[in-house]
Amino acid sequence: MNPNDEVHSSPIVNGGAVKPVLPFFSLGRAGGIGLGDKLFRSMTGFFAFLVLVLAVLTAAALWINSVPCLKAMGWKFLVTSDWDPVQEVFGAVPFIYGTLVSSLLALLIATPLGLGVSLFLTELAPLKLREPVAFLVEILAAIPSVVYGLWGMFVLAPLLRVRVDPILIKIGGIFHLPFFNEPSTGLSLWTGGVVLSIMILPTITAISREVFEAVPNVYRESARALGATSWETIQLAVVRSSKPGVVGAVILGLGRALGETMAVTMVIGNTPQVSMNLLASGHSMASVIANEFTEATTDVYLAALTEIGLLLMAITLILNVAAHLLVWFTTRNFQKA
């Protein structure tokens, strides 16, 4: 090739007719939107719309099947604690209480651990350790929930009953706390909360790590330039500016805990009661559906379980939407910065 020749990237001209460089089925623009672009856009839009339709249809199906219980119990279903399928008297309070208490216990345990791990991985860990440690933490999410349940029944519950619960009972007696009282069987709200904390740890760690990594380095450099220590840099430049995203990560972890079924069913005790004693057996919304759905022989009984499922879906949906909005708000502000 002559070095004086110029290389042109313009369209090939043949007899005055310009041949398009891009093929017919193109995702780019060549004088307008082609048929392939329109087809691709329509297909992806249809799939996105289909997800919304499935969610609406699921909620509608749950609502329709809950009508017999709505007519029989009305708003009493949300404020009563009685659960008597023989007399067809149903109240969701024990299950709502057990779900919220076990999930909040899980958050109290998993949140400081998850944030600590994510801060270590983003701010303190050597580069060679970051990916292996993150992989080991996130692999916990790949373990089936029934495996967590079996481990909770045969390993964690006996360990808590023998080693941990007696200490908690002594502390409760000294400070007159109603949360730790005898008897302790090992299958309790406390055990359910511990198992859930392990299950939601990868969620909180992964999302909070992404939020911390989204913090611009100029924040850290500015703090160090002002003489801040490593701890002060993390506290002022990283954590303080990441609060909305961290809250979103915690809420997503809460949504994960609220919907867990098998592991909680195997360790919570499955007793429909409201008790401030965390060492007592309890029940959750997901576990009562799993345990009693096949035993529902009447329309009202089946509708009561379906209404619990509708409540669980509404709670988790609201929490997940709020969490995603918080994470989006945080990362959007950082990208602008």
Beta-strand portion reads: under 5%
Order of strands in the sheet with the most strands?
Answer: 1-2
CATH topology of the largest domain: MetI-like fold
Query: What do we call the CATH homologous superfamily of the largest domain?
Result: MetI-like
Task: Report the structural category.
Answer: mainly alpha
Report helical residue fraction. 55-70%
Describe this structure in words.
The protein has 337 residues and is mostly helical. The chain folds into 2 domains: 1-65, no CATH class; 77-336, MetI-like fold, CATH 1.10.3720.10. The protein is built from 12 helices and 4 strands. α5 (145-175) packs across α6 and α11 (285-292) runs antiparallel to α12. The longest helix is centred in the last third of the chain and has 38 residues, at 299-336.
Helices and strands in order, then pairings?
Blueprint: E1 13-14, E2 17-18, H1 35-65, H2 67-73, E3 83-84, E4 89-90, H3 93-124, H4 127-138, H5 145-175, H6 189-213, H7 217-225, H8 230-239, H9 243-258, H10 262-267, H11 285-292, H12 299-336
Antiparallel strand pairs: 1-2, 3-4
